[in-house]
Amino acid sequence: MSYGSHDTEWSDSKLGNQWRRLNQFILIVGKHREAAHYWASIDHKYLDETFESAEAAKKAVELELERRQDAWERGLSHDT
């Protein structure tokens, strides 16, 4: 799924999550409701890991997007 073409900085959503647009993808970080950890997603596809802080989740999701885009450019699977 692609969104607008301009990148944004991290912002708070109405749901209380943090989000940003980066390279036409939406990155979202949120706190798990029943636990003291954070989750992260790229276009609503969640990363397998959980994180101890929002900052760790942000860094991880940005790095994961970069890793996936590098793989896509090399012709590897979009699910890599």
Task: Supply database-style keywords.
80 residues, alpha+beta, 1 helix, 25% helix, globular
Give a quick rundown of the structure:
The chain is α+β, with helices and mostly antiparallel strands.
Shape: globular
Distance between the termini: 16 Å
Class by alpha and beta content: alpha+beta
Query: How many extended strands?
Result: 5
Sequence of strands across the biggest β-sheet: 1-2-3-4-5
Rg over alpha carbons: 13 Å
Topology:
Elements: E1 11-12, E2 18-22, E3 25-31, E4 38-42, E5 45-46, H1 54-73
Antiparallel strand pairs: 1-2, 2-3, 3-4, 4-5
Structure description:
- 25% of the residues lie in helices and 26% in strands.
- A hairpin with a 6-residue loop joins strand 3 (25-31) and strand 4 (38-42).
- It has a five-stranded antiparallel β-sheet, with helices on one face.
- The longest helix has 20 residues, at 54-73.
- The protein has one domain.
- With 80 residues, the protein is of the alpha+beta class.
